[in-house]
Amino acid sequence: MSTLSLFSEGNQAVPGSTSWYLADLGEFRGKQELYTRQAPQRLKALREHALIESSVSSNRLEGVEVAPRRIHNLLASPKPLFRDRDEEEVRGYREALCHIHNNAADLDLSEETICQLHRLTRGQIWDAGCYKTKDGDITERYPDGRERVRFRTVPALETPRYMTGLISDWGRCLEERWIHPLIGMAAFNLDFLCIHPFRDGNGRVSRLLLLLQCQQQGFEVGRYISLERLIEQHKDRYYETLEQSSQGWHEGKNDPWPYINFILSILRTAYQEFAERVGDVQAPRGSKTEMILAALQRLPPEFTVAQLEQACPGVSREMLRRVLSAQKGKSVECLGRGPGAKWQKKG
């Protein structure tokens, strides 16, 4: 039994912490239209930057990385030349994001859509868009060479049946109002990851589906603030809650609330950041300058230019240094010399 179908029985009590998340998100959704009427140029810059951050962070979570100096050309050029598979997959994720942003209202959440998103993120690899043909468990590897099976996924032969059932449960959950759509969405996400329908790329597709479902339910924040970047910033908690909530999944005895609350917390954090960046702005700045200043707030008290560069994909090092120089003595101080020098935030 899937997590989502457990809610059809009507005997799942919603924890108080979850109710608070829902209340906050409902309030943010009510202010969403007001925010999106303001500063169209700033909103455009946020959308463009979110595309870059999401493409980089979602792939980096899966160990797929590209050199910072390549990111701008890779994601901005109409027809980039790929140097390796990693670059192709990062660009493919951007194409999948654009597909969702441009067509969310018209996309059915179906097996066809899910396979299409997988195909976009996986490029020209042989099984792009196809369910797995061999069983594959989720294994954790330790530095000393030890391994442990963190979760046993659905067998390959049963994957099509489970996916058909999951899609059906999602439709019924919305139609019959089993539970609040945001709770149902997070439960769907958990079930998708437990089924693990593809040989590779399941995490990335799960995050794309999260974005799609959010937009279809009227929660538009993922257009402007990268949900993937926030998940990456809290990746330890992401993997911890995923493991907690997947225990007992096959027997229908799992506790979904740790993972559901994590997903809701990511959405709330995204809306809080959106409100800070758009809802309460007074004096306009250049879009890239604003992105860099926002990234500085997220960095530890001491940082390097390389860390700031990683937090601002698509922004040149020259631009980063220009903003740091302008902030020197105001909000930051340089603690040394040379490209590897540390900087320190003041206050």
Describe the structure.
By secondary structure, this protein is mainly alpha-helical. The chain has 2 domains: 277 residues, Fic-like fold; 59 residues, Arc Repressor Mutant, subunit A. The chain is 59% helix and 5% strand. The protein has 15 helices and 5 strands. A 3-stranded antiparallel β-sheet has the order 3-5-4. A two-stranded antiparallel ribbon has the order 1-2. The longest helix has 23 residues.
Secondary structure elements and their pairing?
Elements: H1 3-6, H2 16-36, H3 40-60, H4 68-76, H5 85-103, H6 111-122, E1 138-141, E2 147-151, H7 159-176, H8 181-195, H9 202-216, H10 227-233, H11 235-246, H12 257-279, H13 287-298, E3 302-304, H14 305-311, H15 317-327, E4 332-334, E5 342-345
Antiparallel strand pairs: 1-2, 3-5, 4-5
Helix pairs in contact: 2-12, 3-5, 3-10, 5-6, 5-9, 6-9, 7-8, 8-9, 8-12, 11-12
What is this entry, summarized?
The protein is mainly α and 347 residues long.
Classify the beta-strand content into a percent band.
5-15%
- Poorly predicted regions: none
CATH architecture of the largest domain: Orthogonal Bundle
Count of spatially separate domains: 2
CATH topology of the largest domain: Fic-like fold
Look at the helices and sheets and give the structural class: mainly alpha
In N-to-C order, the SSE pattern is: HHHHHHEEHHHHHHHEHHEE
List keywords for this structure.
347 residues, mainly alpha, Fic-like fold, Arc Repressor Mutant, subunit A, 3-stranded antiparallel sheet, two-stranded antiparallel sheet, 15 helices, 5 strands, 59% helix
